[in-house]
């Protein structure tokens, strides 16, 4: 049995919704690697290294995160999964509208690597509307970020969007 799961995403930046999914995955699998997708053509607000650093800060001192590691990858997710010998990908589904995209992505990954399965986890209801893009818009307009992202992420966003 393979007990390693990969939790991939852009995480630009990580939100409380992502952390909720990650905690659930960490409770289900022996080992979880949160992996940040870095795409040079699709630059985010934060660099890959910055996103990794923010996630690591969020996990500091969290008892449930002792089996969690953070890394980054470029290229196809399934190739990264094969490299790490992970057989499971974890994705969060917040609402029905997420499902079409997730379903397409999971089927594509399955075609590319039939031995890798995607499992979907639901976050707590209170996080179902949070998205990194909304969080960036709030930060851009200098809104209150406290209920969407941890303090270190809020501070990093404020710094990025300082006018
Ligand atoms: O947080 P996101 O942006 O919804 O995550 C999407 C992500 C990064 C998991 C997905 O775009 C991805 O796996 N990108 C790497 C390239 C790849 O493998 N594409 C084929 C899968 S459709």
What does this structure look like?
By secondary structure, the protein is an alpha/beta fold. The protein is 42% helix and 18% strand. The protein has six helices and five strands; from the N terminus they run E-H-E-H-E-H-E-H-E-H-H. Strand 2, helix 2 and strand 3 form a beta-alpha-beta unit. Bound molecules: 4'-phosphopantetheine. 4'-phosphopantetheine (PNS) is lined by residues 8-10, 37, 76-77, 105, 108-109.
Short descriptors:
163 residues, alpha/beta, Rossmann fold, 5-stranded parallel beta sheet, 6 helices, 5 strands, binds 4'-phosphopantetheine
Tell me the fraction of residues in β-strands, as a range.
Answer: 15-25%
CATH architecture: 3-Layer(aba) Sandwich
Kindly state the percentage of residues in helix.
Answer: 40-55%
Rounded to the nearest angstrom, the distance between the terminal CA atoms is 51 Å
What is the C-alpha radius of gyration, as a whole number of Å? Answer: 15 Å
pLDDT < 50 stretches: none
Gist of the model:
This protein is α/β, with parallel strands linked by helices and 163 residues long.
Set out the fold topology.
Blueprint: E1 4-9, H1 16-28, E2 31-37, H2 48-59, E3 68-73, H3 77-84, E4 88-92, H4 96-112, E5 117-121, H5 132-140, H6 151-160
Parallel strand pairs: 1-2, 1-4, 2-3, 4-5
Bound molecules: 4'-phosphopantetheine.
């Amino acid at each position: 049995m393979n007990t390693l799961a990969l939790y991939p995403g852009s995480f630009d930046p990580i939100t409380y919704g992502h952390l909720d999914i990650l905690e659930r995955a960490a409770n289900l699998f022996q080992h979880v690697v949160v992996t940040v997708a870095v795409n040079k053509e699709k630059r985010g607000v934060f660099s890959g290294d910055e996103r990794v650093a923010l996630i690591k800060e969020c996990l500091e001192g969290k008892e449930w995160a002792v089996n969690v590691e953070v890394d980054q990858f470029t290229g196809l997710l399934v190739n990264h999964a094969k490299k790490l010998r992970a057989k499971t990908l974890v994705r969060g589904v917040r609402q029905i509208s997420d499902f079409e995209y997730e379903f397409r992505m999971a089927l594509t990954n399955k075609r590319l690597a039939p031995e890798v399965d995607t499992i979907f986890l639901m976050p707590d209801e209170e996080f179902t509307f949070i998205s990194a893009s909304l969080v960036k818009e709030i930060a851009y307009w200098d809104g209150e970020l406290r209920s969407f992202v941890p303090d270190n992420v809020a501070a990093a966003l404020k710094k990025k969007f300082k006018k």
